[in-house]
Amino acid sequence: MIQTKMTQLLGIQHPIMQGGMQHLGTPELAAAVSNAGGLGTVNVTIYPELEDFRAAVRQMKSLTDKPFAVNVSIPPDVNPGDKTGGYLEICAEEGVKIIELAGGNPAPFAPVIKGYGMTLIVKMAALKHARKAQSVGADMVTIVGYEVAGHPGMGELSSFVLANKVSHELDIPVLLGGGVADGCGLAGALSLGCAGVVMGTRFVASTEAVISEAHKQWIVDHQEGDTTTCQRTIRNMVRVANTASAQACLEMEKKGATLQELMAVISGKNSKAAYQSGEVEKGLFPVGQTIGLIQDVKPCRDIIDEIMAQAEAQIARVNAMLK
Question: Residue 79: what pLDDT?
Answer without folding.
Answer: 60
